[in-house]
Amino acid sequence: MLPWQSWQIYVGLCLLSICEAFILSAFNSFMSKYVQNQFGLSTKGSSIIMGCLIVPAGFLGIISGGYFVKRYQLSTFQLLLLIQSCLSLSLLFSAGFILVNDPVKIAGINFPYRTDPAQRTTLLDRAKTRVQGLDFE
């Protein structure tokens, strides 16, 4: 059986790992779509950009974290505080994306559906916008 102090550190590390997994899964799931909508990129382009950002950031984070722990010879409690502060800053900066940029209009969530029959789209609507001056009726 572990002493009480060890249990506190273990539970703290488990909770911090859950927070880290949440942040990474949110980046994996939503940031690609967010970049696609904000900058008008294709799905392929936004996925490539996010991959080019996340993979080196993870690599540099692991290397710099290991160097920082070895350089300053952090104890277990100091290491726990370091992890907690880094994840808190990461969560704070991630929330900054939502506060700074305008929301994307999504039908049914923050933008109403088109219910007027005169406003309904047809298969020819896209063709009408591309070929101007032609009458399809």
From TrEMBL:
One Pfam family cited in the UniProt record for this chain: OATP
GO terms of biological process kind: sodium-independent organic anion transport
Molecular function terms from GO? sodium-independent organic anion transmembrane transporter activity
Which SUPFAM superfamilies did the record assign?
MFS general substrate transporter (SSF103473)
GO CC field: basolateral plasma membrane
Keyword annotations for this protein, in alphabetical order, are: Disulfide bond, Membrane, Transmembrane, Transmembrane helix
Membrane-traversing stretches: 6-27, 48-69, 81-100
Protein name stated in the entry: Solute carrier organic anion transporter family member 5A1-like
- Organism expressing this protein natively: Diaphorina citri
